[in-house]
Amino acid sequence: MATQTAVELDVLDYPAHLSSISTSVLQNSLGRSLDDSDPSVSSPPRSTTDVEAACLNINKSRACLIIIQLSGINFVSSFSNGLLSIGLPTITKAINIPPNLLLWPTSVFYLTMGSSLLIAGSVADVIGPRKVYLTGTLLTAAMILASGFAKDAITFIMLRAVQGIANAMVVPTAVSIIASNVEEGTVRNIGFASIFLSETLGFAIGMVLGGVLVSGPGYEVGYYAGGATGLLLFIVGIWGLPKDSELASFKSASRRLATEIDWVGAGIASASIAILSYVLVMLSADTAHITTPSNIALLTLSLLLLPVFAIWMHFQMKRGKPALIPNNLWTNLPFTSVCLMILLCDAVLNCMELFGSLFFQEVQLLSALQAAIRILPQVVVGATLSLLAGALVNKMPVMTSIMVSSILAAGSPLLMAVIDPSWNYWIMAFWAQLLAPLSVGLLFAVGTLVVSEALPRKTQALAGAVFNTFARVGSSVGLCLTSVISMSVTQRSSYQHKESPEALMSGYRAIFWALFAWMIVACIIGAFGLRKLGKVGVKRD
To answer: Where would I find the Major facilitator superfamily (MFS) profile domain in this sequence (predicted)?
Structure first.
């Protein structure tokens, strides 16, 4: 008898009348083959057992190499983000980024990535995750390398936009490749955790080395090194990554792309995310932009597209057609809860990294390198927790672990909200850095497993895309909202010089209180939605 999780994570059920759909659609949705004599099907049907046996016939040594390669490109992409975060003032001066575009190099990456994840995941489930992953890897490396040569703001921002799309191709397909080729158990759990671990390490090392490079040879060296490393990983991926389980002809792949993907649903969801992100970026630059008719119209449109998406999902399921994210999936409480929690917790962690760095530089008047060193405890704790979570997630009670880590993580913004800037680092700021990654470090490992188990094996790229879309939207929305809060509070403060450390601290303090409130909401969601969830990531016989 197969070993099950303590509380079964229901796999998405599709209605019985889907029998009218082509065999390939049913195979993609349900992960099982049906008898069919349709001559248009290019390959004979295979049982799920046969497909899984072929996919999972990989020893542990090769599985570890696959995980290292998949994590490597995510590390490189995050390294470039950390380099940009710490080196933005220098980059702004070097390529003359105007004040109205100051946030765009950072924001456009999350905007394009968040709006491309669902489409990239859907396409990967049809044509194969390896093809999409390698394409994304090559694009990521090329865009990072080219960023080092950019001489003007528009070129740099456009390269960052394409890098966001490339990263959207990499992240969900990495989840799919691990899910399809590494059998359930500790190694697979560590693989999922490593995807987050590489992001955390890459960002932090990018900040630290960025501080060194900005003060020495120049930020361009970081982009050259990152791009070259990405190209090397691309070559290693061609040689080392397992082939996709089903190879189809160009004609067959084109037909499947046309018939097996909910393009309308993907377009609606992506448009809503992109428009909302754009409006929030505009507001973060100047809150007065909310009064402009164009931004009001765009914000209204982005919100209206949400119920339109739900209606379209119902319509697709009713007529037996592929639905991107069927509405009944949201009735799976663990799935919905981890998605909402990662949206909030990832927003908090990203904002803690950014505004923690600004606190050290703009309020305590430390150098970029000194600020990066003070954020390093986040990296150590995040990396350690990710590895432990991957190795032990199938042995620990999920509900208790997530709740304890989330409550402790809520202490991070709380400490920064009440801190006295004149205090020594070790009194309070150090402990805030230690606590910051506790929730996300565990939630990424658990959440990826929950989402992976909630969706069929043949839609694992989409599973990774859904989960990471919530994380990226959380980052984008969180950064924009906190920027608005900071500017509003600072401008209304009683300090005459709005650029003074005291005035800036009033805005940062308001941000930290907001982040504390978001973590409390995340704790409430977890307490309700995960209360019946036992163990996940357990190996099935």
So the answer is: 66-534
Helix pair 293-318, 263-285: axis angle to 10 deg? 160
Q: How far apart are CA 465 and CA 476, in angstroms?
A: 16
3-class DSSP state of 425? coil
Fold exhibited by the domain 53-529 = Growth Hormone; Chain: A; (1.20.1250)
Report the alpha-carbon distance of residue 381 to residue 353 in Å, rounded. Answer: 14
Q: List C-alpha distances in Å: 98 to 91, 132, 416.
A: 11, 35, 31
How do residues 435-449 score in pLDDT, each as one tens digit? 998 888 788 778 777
- 357, 408 contact by CB (below 8 A): no
AA letter at 197: L
DSSP 4-31: --SS--PPPP--GGGGGS-HHHHHHHHS
Single out the residue of 273, 269, 268, 256 nearest to residue 322, CA to CA: 256
Read off the amino acid at residue 345.
C
Question: Which tokens sit at 162?
Answer: 């394409």
Closest C-alpha to 359, from 481, 474, 197, 508: 508
Angle between helices 129-147 and 104-127 in degrees, nearest 10:
160
Q: Output the six-digit token pair for 495.
A: 């300090």
Contact 383, 201 (CB under 8 A): yes
Please tell me the distance from the alpha carbon of residue 265 to that of residue 277, in angstroms, as a whole number.
Answer: 18
- For the segment 73-81, the average pLDDT, to the nearest whole number, is 93
Q: How confident is the model at residue 534 (pLDDT cuts 50, 70, 90)?
A: low
**pTM of the complete model:** 0.76
pLDDT of residue 274: 86
pLDDT, average across residues 44-53: 44
Which letter, b or e, does each residue of 403-442 get, where b requires 16 or more Cβ atoms within 10 Å of its Cβ? Answer: bebbbebbbbbbbbbebebeeebeeebebbbbbbbbbbbb
pLDDT at 402 over 80: yes
SS3 420: coil
d(CA 441, CA 385) in angstroms, rounded, equals 6
Q: CA-to-CA distance for 66 and 240, rounded, in angstroms?
A: 7
pLDDT band at 308 (very low <50, low <70, confident <90, very high): very high
Cα distances from 299 to residues 123, 282, 515, in angstroms, run: 28, 11, 23
